[in-house]
Amino acid sequence: MEKALKHRCPVCGMDVDVPADYMPGELVEHECGVVLELVENGGRLQLRVFGGVEEDWGE
């Protein structure tokens, strides 16, 4: 079993355990109540607050 990666919550600053086998776009719910999206930017993992699903009106 691989170790979880440690990152900081952008809202509360506490540690967030991210699975080592994460996939970009995956959602993680943090203990402070916020839902975070795992995003890769330049090969680095970033956590950002998930803004919800936007409707595309079938386009």
Verbal overview:
The protein is mainly beta. 0% of the residues lie in helices and 41% in strands. It has a domain at 23-53. It has strands spanning 5-8, 15-18, 27-29, 35-41, 44-49. The strands form two sheets. A three-stranded antiparallel β-sheet has the order 3-4-5, with no helix packed on it. Strands 1-2 form a two-stranded antiparallel ribbon. A hairpin with a 5-residue loop joins strand 3 (27-29) and strand 4 (35-41). The model has no long low-confidence stretch (mean pLDDT 87).
Brief description of this entry?
By secondary structure, this protein is mainly beta. It has no helices and 5 strands.
List keywords for this structure.
59 residues, mainly beta, 3-stranded antiparallel sheet, two-stranded antiparallel ribbon, 0% helix
Number of strand elements? 5
Average pLDDT for all residues: 87
Poorly predicted ranges (pLDDT <50, ≥5 residues)? none
Order of helices and strands: EEEEE
**Any idea what the shape is?**
globular
Instruction: Please estimate the helix content.
Output: under 10%
Radius of gyration: 13 Å
* Main beta sheet strand tally, sense and closure: 3 strands, antiparallel
Structural class: mainly beta
Beta-strand share of residues: 35-45%
For the termini, the CA-CA separation is: 41 Å
Order of adjacent strands in the largest pleated sheet = 3-4-5
Number of helices: 0
Annotate the secondary structure layout.
Blueprint: E1 5-8, E2 15-18, E3 27-29, E4 35-41, E5 44-49
Antiparallel strand pairs: 1-2, 3-4, 4-5
